[in-house]
Every structure is written in structure tokens, then in C-alpha cells.
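1st attempt posting a full record on here, be nice pls
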Amino acid sequence: MKGTSYREAISTKERLAVALRFLATGNSFTSLAFNFRMGFSTVREIVRDVCETIWNKLSPMYMPEPTPLMWEKSEEGFRSYWNFPNCCGALDGKHVNITCPINGGSDFWNYKGENSIVLLALVDPK
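the predicted structure (as C-alpha cells):
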């Protein structure tokens, strides 16, 4: 990031602060733009860029691509820890109620008549 003669670039620390505030509070981009004295579209781009960068850096460490050896070790763990053979993972989900995003339409509308997003978790035997 490089500043121009018109203004200074938004620092990395401030970009991270904007993204973390969004992730922690769920505030709207408009609210964050007001709080950080930035434009709405600037906040939107910052959150998108920071989240994409975090995903690209951390996903290989914490969500590596599965290998046959990983599946075999997971199955062995379920068999030995929980006496549950032939299981490679446990998956569960939950609807988390949200306020419908702008222009969300019926994308977040669920069968209970609420707006929600599905949170899924896949775990190993430990």
C-alpha cells in the first residue's frame, strides 16, 4: 500500500481492525464506515481482502487437503476412542438467526420463517 499526493493509504493495522470489528460485531458496512470514517465501499473491500488473505494464509495449516492416511487415522480414532467403527468424521449444523443482508432476497429465508445462515462443523475423533 502506497500513499498518494491526495491522501495516505489505509494502514495494515487499521485494515485488520476494520475486518476484525466486522467479524466480531456483525455491524453493517455503513456503521463501520461511519465509525472508521471511511467510505461504505472501502470498508466492504477491506473486509473482503482481509478475510481472503487470512483464509489463504491459514487454511493450508488448519484445513489441509485430506489424504487417505488422514482418513485412516481418523477412522482408527473413532474406533478406539468412541467404539464407533467405519466413521471418518462427525458433521453437525445449526441455523443461526441473522438480519437479512441488503438485497439478500430469499437467499437466507428458512423453513421456520426466519432469516438464518447455516453453521456447519466437521470434527475428528479428538
